[in-house]
Structures are given as structure tokens and as C-alpha cells.
Design a protein that fits this description.
heterodimer; A: alpha/beta; Rossmann fold; 6-stranded mixed β-sheet; 20 helices; B: mainly alpha; ABC transporter involved in vitamin B12 uptake, BtuC; 76% helix
Chain lengths: 541, 364
């Protein structure tokens, strides 16, 4: 196992039969004290699907951004079709036939698909009809169903991503880079995307697919490069047969030892691997039928209408019992955000009420909710959960700063000590409590937010919305470990996630949301997967 | 040649790594050089202009004291700006806050019976009136922001115009603050305020008109620095400024903080008005403030959020104003040149800050 981690001669790029389209040699990039990439060499052959596998912070995105000209490398050489490739910026990379779909889309919501595509034209007369024709031709060719005149704001995330892909394909690229494209998609949409990748590659355009999901690699990857800590730790030309070796290289341990939630995140449960699902029941509390008196959270007919009067959440009723994890499944944008916003006191409910341990908390301020023992891990960590420009310690104690007062002044020493304690308990890895929160990796940021919320005084209820988004395997395990531990102490947990496999392995019961309504309830058993998937898509169970 | 390039690199690095205050210093030097070029362009000899400037700014104990007194008002407005800035609020209403402060202090000093009070109260009560009036003026913008989301840049600016016109009106009407008209030459201004209501001088020597306002301003600066940097309140204010949504989720109350912060900014503006009236001008005139509010805003901007920065920038502008006035009187350089230099400082500052930020981005 250790041998995998040491760079060996075999780890230099596997020989490519044809001349590589893109050849990277000795690429290094440093951000401040962080060596994001160190001596990375990769070859991308024409027409291949090359997967970049690695945990968050392994350097995948950095590598893509170097190729796309967003950053400039500190060292190393890039050659595109044999010629030196030194893009001064994304525009130049685009001109040379490299297209990239970023994790965050750059579309104007108020404009139609065609209008958005026309934004990419730098000069000349804009002819809407020509564009629409090209969109339709590309849609047909690659199987990307799209209405050219639909407004972006009316499209689902999957459809928006298709627009981004069409935007790339219109430039007839030689290389298409997709940065974690499947993280935001429904299971069925993922299949579609992978099929598109295969078609694109079949037409001679190389595809670089950044992912941390093994099922995707098994399905489409021709070759795989595994990054860890900014270095290439494994490469494979036959990834489907070597999944075990690749996973070990990526996470430095075997899949079998992982908790259910974490291996579900890698997509292994879906692939039918029984290691994880076998581990699941013992970690769940399947013995729960709880007495009704144990209600931690009672939501009664909650309705939320937005500023335009559109109903975002309709007459939602649910109960979370003491020591129970209730999962809220659903495609994003089906009322989960509104539910979380109301329960955290950030948005008033239009109708309905909710109670925490029998006490009505409808309309209570965030402060009052915290005092009542409600912890909130918000979906949008950066917008609601933390203040990235402040220090780690300040963020860890953000809702209890008044405790660190001495002679009327801020007691930095006590703040630091309390922060260190939480850092240790929740395994938040950082150079120290005083470093800027923005300097932490996503996983550590999330552990910090979770740590702060779980250490809320007299915690009785925890709302965790998409708590594992963008986290690596180790962090996912840690997050679910902490949530479960809180649960065992009697905390009721409402877990909102768009990752169905994770919900199935972690939650006791699942409530499915569709267009702001509860489509159905069911126990979280692996067998319920199909049924829940159907409910998520709006079919009555 | 290579050593020059090396120096340039070194300078770039040091600018990048230094605290923001160095940016301001570089901007000021560059702007001064441009100003000197202008002086040459006008046809005045640079040494003569510089001599006149130096003479007016720090050529005598009187000049130094006058410069410092000017700086005090600017420092107070600048401190208010920095406090508001911590909560991500921009107070551009200094001019109006000075005006209402001046009006309140004049009214209390002349007609509120303050002169009959024992010594610290005789000048303290009008000062307090100015603080309250300025604070209310600022808090109005705060309430508008908290209740209706009105942009505070617009509301503080418009309130400024209102206040300045109230001041004009009040010194035009005998029913208000105008001195009794004994003949047609009576100026539209208030009576001279009684001596007990003026700020006591620090030294018995009338050649140095430094007054107790210096001590008061320094004490306020110290308290502000401690409150912003060392208190839970300051930390919360910073949180609110950086991310109000996360701050609210963490249990902080945003609306009261906005009102309080703009009250404080306004109160400091009002106090600046009191200093100008009670420490310097002695009577309320139509052109009472003449730009101190806006200069104070620039002082706040130059300081880039730091209290020592406010003091430094205020001193700079105080000396610049005194020197500029003398440059006009003795060397015939239009005082507009000084205003141009001030404008250039702002431009250079913004430009340098932008340049440094973009360098930081580039090295990511």
C-alpha cells in the first residue's frame, strides 16, 4: 500500500501510442505556502477520455486551470499538438482549441440559451437564427436535448450544464475539460453526460474529466491519472480493472475500511459494491420506532412564498425524533433551501409553524434559535456559514463571541484556546487558530462550521444541508461520524442532501421533496432507491 | 540598469508585503511631485512656492498649531468614516454632520445659557449638543438603511445638503441665529460665542492656539482604536461588514448595529463642528464648514481602515491646507493647486491600491 504513494518510474506517463495532443511535463504551482502542484507530468492522447481522479485539494482543478490559462505555472512545460502552450489567459486557450466547463456556470439567467451562446461571439453581426440552427445541429449530433429559446432561469442544473457544453462544442475544440461535471446532476443526467463525453471523444476531441466518483471512471475512462497532494500518485491505462489500486492511491487506504457515507460518496454503493451497504445497518438506528413524546422537531404545514408570490414550499409537515436522522431527498431547488432558511430563522414562513422540543419557534430570530439548541450547517457555507476573511478562531466562535470578554475587551487568548479545543475535537486541520478561514480546504471549513454548530450549548436539533458537498472522503467520514455521534447523544438531525446514496446509508428515514411538496416518506433502505429516485423526479410513489 | 530593475522588483515586493499604510505614503509623494510640476507650469518658482508652503504649514509655532487644529476636525470625521467602514457602510455626510453640530453648539453656547455654567461644562455642554445633533443626523441615514434598505451613500450625501441649507437659513434669519442687524453692513453670521464656551487653550501663550480639542480627539482616537481592534463589539462589527448574512445567522443584530454605527459617525462629525466653532471660528458663518466634511471623508479613505492612518492622513491634510493657504497668499499659487494635489492623492491611492490588489491576484 505504501509503495503506491512513492513516485516510481512506472508513474511517469504511460506511453501514448499516438503523439499526445496535450503533453504536460513537470508542472508545478504554489499558492502562498501551499504547493498545489509538484512536478506533474500527464499526456492526453487525441480522442481519449482522460479522468483526473483525486480528493479535494489534490490539485485537479489547479491543473485544469493551468491548461486553460487561468493561472500560470511556476515551473514545467505544456505542449499542445507538439507546440509550446503558454496561454496568457483563458481567451488564448480558447483560441487554441481548449474549452472548459467550470464547476460554476457562467450563464446569464435572464437570457435565452441562444442569447447566452451569442455572448461568446467577440465581433460581427449576431444572427439568432444561425445560432439556433447550430445549437440544434449540435444537440442532435451529441444527444444534448436543448430548447434554444428557453430562458436559462427556467432550466434545470443539468440543462444548464448542457448549455455550457454546447458553448464549448460550438468552438469545435480539440480538448474539452470538464471540472467535476457530475457533482450537480441527477443519476439519470449523469448517464446522459457520460454518453455525451463518449460521443465527443469518438469525434476526435480529447476529454479531460475531473471527478472523484469511481463509477464514472469504470464507465467511460480510457486512462486515469490520480493526484494526491499535488503529485501524480498513480496512472492507469486500464482503469476499470485497477479501481482498487487507484482508490488506494487516491485516499491512501482501502475502500472496505470506509464508513458507509464515505464510500457512498465515491459512488460505490450505486455500483453494487456490497462492502459499504453491509456496513450501513450497524451504524444506523434501525431499531427506532420512537415514542411520539420524543419529537425534537415538529414542522406543521409550513409554506413559503417568495417575493414574487411563487410557492417554494407547500404545506410541509414532518417530524424529527430525538436521536433520529431524517433525510430530505430531492433535486436541488425543490424547496430544500427554503426549508433550511425558515428553520434557521433567516426567512419568515408564509404559513405554518414549527416547534423545537415542543416550543414554538416560528419566526424566532437566529439568536433565539441558537439559544433553543438549534444548530444549522447551512447549504451555502460561504454565504451563510462563515466569514472567510476572518480567522478560523473567530469563525469557530462566531455565535458566542460574548464569552470571550475580559475587562470589557476581547480575550484573544481564551478565544484561541477554545478554538483549539474545537479544532482538535473535530479534526480541523490548519496551521493554527489565527489563520484566515479562506486558507482552509473545503473539508476543513466544513468541519469547522459543523464543529461550531454541534458545540452549540444544549444542542437538541441539528439541520445539516448538503454537509458533504465538495468534501473529500476523509472529511465526509468525519462529518458523518460527528453527526452520528451527536445523534447518539439524543440530538435529532434533519439531513438535506441531493446525494441519494449518502442519504440511504446515513439516514433512518427519508422524506422526498419535489416542487416544494412532500412526495412521500420511506425508510432508508437500499431497496428504496428506485422508488425514491422516481419520487425525486416527480412521480407519485 | 539591472540594479535598477532589481530595485524595482524589490520595491514592488516590499509594497506588496507592507501594510496598507505604505501605499498611502507612496501615493502622497507621487501626488506632491505632480503638484510641483503644476506649480512650474503656472510659472511660479518651485523653491518660492515650497518656502511659502513650509512657512504656512509649519514655519512658526502658530502655523503648526493652526495646522493641527485644522487636522483635528478632519481626524474626527475620518474616525467616523473608519468606524462606519468597519460595518461596510460609507458615510459621506461629514459636511452636513459638521453643519448641524455647528448649529447646535452655537445655539446652546449663545442662547442655551452654557456660558453661565462652571468651566468644563460651559464648553462641554455645547460640545455635547453638537455630538447629539450630528449623531441624530447620521442615525437618520442609519434608520433609512436598516428599515428600507436606502443606500447610505445617497442618504448621507442628501442629508448633507439639507443640513448645509439649514445652516445658511439659520444665519440669515434674526429669528434664528443671525446676529442683531445694527446696520446694513451686518454680516449674515451669528454673534461671537461667549469666551467661557470656547475651548480652553493648552498653553497660556496665545501664539500657539492649540486647544483641549487635541486631547479630546486623541482620547477618542485611542478609544476608537481599542473598540475596533480589541473589543467583541469591534469584531462583531467587522463580521457584519464582511458578511451580514452569516453575521445574522450567528445571532448578531444587523439593524441596530447599522443605526448605532452611523450615529457614531455623525456624532464625530458633529463634534468636529463643535471644535471648528468653539476652538477656531468663534461664530457661525454661512460658509462654516467649507469642505471639511469632504476632506475628512478623504482622510478616512486614505487611512484604509486604520486609526493611526486617520491621524496621519488628517495631519497631512491639515498641514496641506495651512501651507496651501500661505502658498496662495505669499507665492501667488492658486489654492486650487492644493486642491488638485488632494485630488491627485485620492486618484493615486485608488490606483496604487488597485495595482497592488491585481498583483496579489496575479501571483495566485
Amino acid at each position: 500500500m505504501l509503495a503506491e504513494t512513492v513516485p516510481r518510474p512506472a508513474e511517469t506517463p504511460a506511453p501514448v501510442t499516438a503523439a499526445p495532443l496535450l503533453s504536460l511535463r513537470g508542472m508545478s504551482k504554489r499558492f502562498g505556502s501551499l504547493q498545489a502542484l509538484a512536478d506533474v507530468s500527464v499526456d492526453i492522447a487525441p480522442g481519449e477520455i482522460h479522468c483526473l481522479l483525486g480528493e479535494n485539494g489534490a490539485g485537479k482543478s489547479t491543473l485544469c486551470n493551468l491548461v486553460f490559462g487561468v493561472y500560470r505555472p511556476d515551473a514545467g512545460e505544456m505542449r499542445l499538438a507538439g507546440e509550446a502552450h503558454r496561454p496568457a489567459g483563458p481567451a488564448q486557450a480558447l483560441a487554441q482549441g481548449i474549452a472548459m466547463v467550470h464547476q460554476h456556470f457562467s450563464l446569464v439567467p435572464d437570457m435565452t440559451v441562444v442569447e447566452n451562446l451569442m455572448l461568446g461571439q467577440s465581433a460581427g453581426v449576431l444572427r439568432r437564427r444561425d445560432y439556433a440552427g447550430r445549437v440544434e445541429a449540435l444537440s442532435r449530433e451529441y444527444g444534448l436535448a436543448l430548447d434554444p429559446y428557453a430562458r436559462i432561469q427556467d432550466l434545470s442544473v443539468g440543462e444548464r450544464q448542457r448549455v455550457e457544453i454546447v458553448k464549448c462544442l460550438m468552438r469545435e475544440p480539440r480538448l474539452m475539460v470538464l471540472d467535476e461535471p457530475t457533482a450537480v446532476l441527477l443519476p439519470a443526467e449523469i448517464e446522459g453526460l457520460l454518453a455525451v463525453c463518449e460521443r465527443v471523444a469518438a469525434r476526435g476531441c480529447s476529454v479531460v474529466l475531473v471527478t472523484h466518483k469511481l463509477a464514472e471512471i469504470k464507465k467511460v475512462a480510457h486512462r486515469v491519472t490520480v493526484l494526491r497532494g499535488g503529485r501524480v500518485v498513480a496512472q492507469s491505462s486500464a482503469p476499470a480493472e485497477e479501481i482498487g489500486r487507484l482508490v488506494r492511491a487516491m485516499i491512501q487506504r482501502d475502500l472496505e475500511g470506509l464508513g458507509a457515507g464515505a464510500s457512498a460518496m465515491l459512488g460505490e454503493v450505486a455500483a453494487g459494491d456490497d462492502a459499504a451497504s453491509a456496513a450501513a445497518p450497524q451504524q444506523k438506528h434501525l431499531e427506532t420506532p420512537k415514542p411520539a413524546a420524543d419529537e425534537t422537531l415538529q414542522v406543521d404545514g409550513l409554506t413559503v412564498r417568495d417575493a414574487e408570490g411563487v410557492t417554494r414550499l407547500a404545506n410541509l409537515t414532518l417530524i424529527v425524533n430525538r436521536g433520529e436522522i431524517v433525510g430530505v431527498a430531492g433535486v436541488e431547488g425543490n424547496g430544500q433551501s427554503e426549508l433550511a432558511a425558515v428553520l434557521s430563522g433567516m426567512t419568515p414562513a408564509s404559513e405554518g409553524r414549527f416547534f423545537v422540543r415542543g416550543r414554538e419557534m416560528t419566526g424566532a430570530s437566529p439568536k433565539a434559535l441558537t439559544a433553543a439548541g438549534v444548530g444549522i450547517v447551512p447549504e451555502d457555507r460561504h454565504a451563510v456559514g462563515c466569514i472567510t476573511a476572518m480567522s478560523l478562531a473567530e469563525n469557530l466562535m462566531l455565535n458566542r463571541l460574548e464569552r470571550f470578554r475580559r475587562f470589557g475587551l476581547l480575550d484573544r487568548g481564551a478565544l484561541r484556546r477554545a478554538a483549539e479545543e474545537t479544532m482538535q475535537r473535530f479534526d480541523v486541520r490548519a496551521a493554527g487558530p489565527d489563520i484566515a478561514f479562506s486558507g482552509l480546504s473545503g473539508g476543513n471549513q466544513q468541519k469547522a462550521v459543523l464543529g461550531r454548530e454541534i458545540t452549540t450549548e444544549d444542542l437538541v436539533f441539528l439541520l445539516a444541508a448538503q454537509p458533504t458537498r465538495g468534501l473529500d472522503v476523509g472529511a465526509v467520514e468525519a462529518v458523518y461520524g460527528q453527526i452520528r455521534a451527536a445523534c447518539e447523544r439524543g440530538v435529532g438531525v434533519l439531513l438535506i442532501s441531493s446525494e441519494l446514496d449518502e442519504l440511504l446509508s446515513v439516514a433512518d428515514r427519508i422524506v422526498v421533496l419535489y416542487r416544494g411538496r412532500v412526495m412521500g416518506h420511506c425508510a432508508a433502505e437500499p431497496g428504496a432507491r428506485e422508488r425514491i429516485g422516481a419520487m425525486m423526479a416527480g412521480h407519485e410513489a | 540598469m539591472s540594479s535598477l530593475a532589481g530595485t524595482a522588483t524589490l520595491l514592488r515586493q516590499s509594497v506588496r508585503d507592507r501594510p496598507a499604510i505604505l501605499v498611502s505614503i507612496v501615493a502622497v509623494i507621487a501626488a506632491t511631485l505632480c503638484g510641483m510640476a503644476l506649480v512650474v507650469g503656472i510659472g511660479v518658482s518651485v523653491p518660492k512656492a515650497l518656502a511659502a508652503f513650509a512657512d504656512g504649514a509649519w514655519g512658526s509655532p502658530y502655523a503648526v498649531a493652526a495646522s493641527i487644529n485644522r487636522a483635528l476636525a478632519l481626524a474626527l470625521v475620518g474616525l467616523g468614516f473608519v468606524i462606519a467602514q468597519r460595518a461596510n457602510l460609507t458615510n459621506v455626510g461629514g459636511e452636513g454632520q459638521i453643519a448641524v453640530g455647528g448649529i447646535a453648539a452655537t445655539a446652546v453656547a449663545l442662547y442655551g445659557g452654557a456660558s453661565a455654567l462652571p468651566v468644563p461644562l460651559s464648553f462641554g455642554v455645547p460640545m455635547l449638543a453638537a455630538v447629539v445633533a450630528g449623531g441624530i443626523w447620521g442615525a437618520i441615514a442609519g434608520v433609512l438603511k436598516a428599515k428600507a434598505g436606502t443606500n447610505e451613500v445617497i442618504s448621507t450625501l442628501l442629508l448633507s445638503f439639507v443640513a448645509v441649507w439649514i445652516l445658511y437659513g439659520s444665519v440669515q434669519s434674526e429669528a434664528l441665529l443671525r446676529q442683531p442687524m445694527t446696520n446694513t453692513a451686518t454680516l449674515p453670521e451669528s454673534l461671537e460665542i461667549p469666551d467661557p464656551t470656547k475651548l480652553p487653550l493648552l498653553s497660556a501663550n496665545a501664539d500657539t492656539p492649540l486647544h483641549v480639542g487635541l486631547l479630546i480627539a486623541l482620547a477618542i482616537a485611542l478609544v476608537t482604536a481599542i473598540a475596533l481592534e480589541r473589543s467583541v463589539w469591534g469584531l462583531r462589527l467587522r463580521a457584519i461588514g464582511l458578511n451580514p448574512v452569516a453575521a445574522r445567522r450567528a445571532g448578531m443584530r444587523i439593524a441596530p448595529a447599522i443605526v448605532l454605527v452611523l450615529f457614531l459617525a455623525g456624532a464625530l462629525g458633529g463634534l468636529a463642528g463643535a471644535f471648528m466653532l468653539q476652538g477656531d471660528q468663534g461664530s457661525l458663518k454661512a460658509r462654516f464648514s467649507s469642505g471639511y466634511g469632504f476632506d475628512g471623508l478623504v482622510v478616512g479613505l486614505l487611512a484604509r481602515g486604520s486609526v493611526p492612518g486617520v491621524l496621519a492622513a488628517a495631519a497631512l491634510f491639515g498641514f496641506l491646507r495651512s501651507g496651501g493657504i500661505n502658498m496662495e497668499l505669499e507665492a501667488g499659487v492658486p489654492s486650487a493647486v492644493v486642491l488638485v494635489i488632494q485630488g491627485l492623492i485620492i486618484l493615486m491611492l485608488a490606483g496604487t491600491a488597485f495595482w497592488i490588489d491585481s498583483r496579489k491576484e496575479g501571483t495566485r
